[in-house]
């Protein structure tokens, strides 16, 4: 297989299609509209009135319709395994992969498979991709409504999620940070026959080795110092429902044998008590490829967890979804601020927004959806009457540009690489502690701030005596602080220098009465 559609596609009686998606339009409601056509030797003309785009939720079709776009802005013609984009003289300005196209250029089939970013008249941004046709997904399931995206990768992910939900087998989700693994896991639970049962989420990388058995499998009163009452473990809490084991690839090696036995037998040993049977389904998630973790992650545990494996695509593999996600995030930020998302009507404003969306599509998003959402929030908070991109965001987005290389020419990669991500080892202990406090002791928040994985943060915390997690606070100290703060959860978290969310989880897992007050109850 050479990666080409041609030849093998005819054998399979499958004809590739060209998908053209509106990634930005002055009428932002049109972002995400598509035009799909089977590939032939006839040229595809793109301009003001053609092709006619349609949203996935309606059968209505219409052209781009912008008066600044020429009636025939450019043409796309297949020439064997190459594709020629030609801009007619005197027509709208045209940029392809962030580079001006004065007349015409030849692109390889592989480049079309990866996708091209096309900017028209500095007002319209399109995404072109050559792909195998995907069957229409009719009647979107409500539980999958949050899994947004029109790319083939997202359509396949939704299909895999539905198939996993119908099965009773355990599931292993594999994907880089920020791709939405917990959201997929929740969808599997919601769509399964266990949806009426409990949902219990556990971060295995943050599980303390010293109290792991009690945390996972429960303990009887008096089983260890501080065990003043019976305690139910995560496996017991999830009985009849779904247990989500997040960051399972970072499970401490000493915990893996006991976890493997519990998964194989569905039987747990309660600390200080008897063995108990549990009826639950396990959905696990990990960032790393398990094939690369054989020395740290037992293959037997991987195969037991991965009766079904689902790999989540990185955002760079589905660039056409970036525009739809970004538009949704901008809308959500505006709603949170009790205002509409308004890009303005001036020519300068529209061009600025179009350029921003072109940059969003060109960026590689190492932090995936989480990074995109955080970036949009930063831009939205700085933009009031007009678009304003913070200097740090601007530097990151403009540090990489997508540059086409002519097929058949062995040219060096001319792309300007993005700034290297932060190495946690380069952050001093003092700077880390300052960042830890600024992040309100939240692992996810400091990981986003420093641009590293959560597992890296957990490893750094283990080496710092000044920083700790709620799971590391002795029960007696926690209860004393809770009493001193008169049951106020936020004040207790500040007093202990731990995250409020982590403290709440620790209290619940320890069986502490829910009579404490949350920070919202004071309002």
From TrEMBL:
It comes from the Bacteria. InterPro entries: AAA+_ATPase, AAA_lid_NorR, P-loop_NTPase, Sigma_54_int, Sigma_54_int_dom_ATP-bd_2, Sigma_54_int_dom_CS. The keyword Cytoplasm does not apply. Residues 147-381 form the Sigma-54 factor interaction domain. Keywords: ATP-binding, DNA-binding, Nucleotide-binding, Transcription, Transcription regulation. PANTHER family: C4-DICARBOXYLATE TRANSPORT TRANSCRIPTIONAL REGULATORY PROTEIN DCTD (PTHR32071:SF57), TRANSCRIPTIONAL REGULATORY PROTEIN (PTHR32071). This is Sigma 54-interacting transcriptional regulator. It comes from Congregibacter variabilis.
């Amino acid at each position: 297989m050479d990666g080409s559609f041609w030849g093998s596609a005819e054998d399979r009686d499958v004809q590739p299609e060209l998908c053209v998606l509106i990634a930005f339009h002055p009428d932002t409601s049109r972002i995400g509209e598509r035009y799909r056509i089977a590939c032939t030797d006839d040229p595809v003309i793109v301009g003001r009135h053609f092709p006619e785009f349609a949203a996935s939720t309606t059968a209505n079709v219409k052209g781009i319709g912008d008066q600044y776009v020429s009636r025939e802005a450019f043409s796309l013609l297949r020439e064997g395994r190459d594709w020629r984009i030609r801009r007619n003289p005197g027509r709208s300005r045209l940029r392809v992969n962030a580079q001006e196209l004065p007349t015409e250029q030849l692109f390889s089939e592989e480049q079309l498979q990866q996708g091209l970013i096309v900017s028209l008249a500095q007002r319209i941004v399109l995404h072109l991709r050559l792909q195998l046709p995907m069957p229409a997904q009719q009647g979107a399931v409500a539980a999958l409504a949050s899994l947004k995206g029109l790319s083939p990768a997202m359509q396949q992910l939704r299909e895999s999620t539905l198939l996993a939900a119908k099965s009773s087998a355990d599931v292993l989700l594999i994907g880089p940070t920020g791709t939405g693994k917990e959201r997929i896991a929740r969808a599997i639970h919601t769509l399964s026959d266990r949806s009426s049962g409990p949902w219990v989420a556990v971060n295995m990388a943050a599980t303390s080795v010293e109290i792991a058995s009690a945390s996972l499998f429960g303990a009887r009163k008096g089983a260890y110092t501080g065990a003043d009452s019976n305690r139910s473990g995560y496996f017991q809490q999830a009985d009849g429902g779904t247990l989500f084991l997040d960051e399972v690839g970072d499970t401490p090696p000493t915990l893996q044998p006991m976890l493997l036995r519990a998964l194989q037998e569905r039987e747990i040993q309660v600390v200080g008590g008897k063995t108990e049977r549990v009826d639950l389904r396990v959905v696990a998630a990990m960032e790393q490829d398990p094939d690369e973790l054989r020395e740290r992650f037992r293959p037997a545990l991987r195969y037991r967890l991965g009766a079904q494996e689902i790999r989540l695509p990185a955002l760079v593999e589905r660039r056409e979804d970036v525009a739809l996600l970004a538009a949704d995030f901008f809308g959500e930020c505006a709603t949170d601020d009790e205002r509409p998302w308004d890009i303005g009507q001036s020519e300068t404003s529209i061009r600025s927004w179009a350029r921003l969306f072109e940059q969003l599509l060109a960026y590689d998003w190492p932090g995936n959806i989480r990074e995109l959402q955080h970036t949009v929030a930063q831009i939205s908070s700085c933009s009031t009457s007009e678009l304003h991109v913070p200097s740090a965001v601007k530097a990151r987005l403009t540090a990489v540009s997508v540059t086409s290389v002519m097929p058949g020419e062995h040219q060096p990669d001319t792309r300007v690489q993005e700034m290297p991500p932060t190495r946690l080892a380069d952050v001093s202990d003092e700077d880390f502690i300052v960042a830890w406090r600024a992040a309100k002791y939240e692992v996810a928040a400091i990981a986003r701030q420093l641009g590293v994985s959560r597992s890296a943060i957990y490893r750094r915390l283990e080496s710092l005596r000044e920083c700790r997690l709620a799971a590391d606070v002795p029960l007696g100290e926690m209860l004393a602080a809770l009493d001193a703060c008169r049951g106020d959860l936020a004040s207790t978290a500040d007093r202990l220098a731990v995250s409020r969310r982590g403290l709440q989880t620790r209290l619940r897992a320890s069986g502490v009465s829910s009579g404490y007050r949350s920070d919202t109850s004071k309002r």
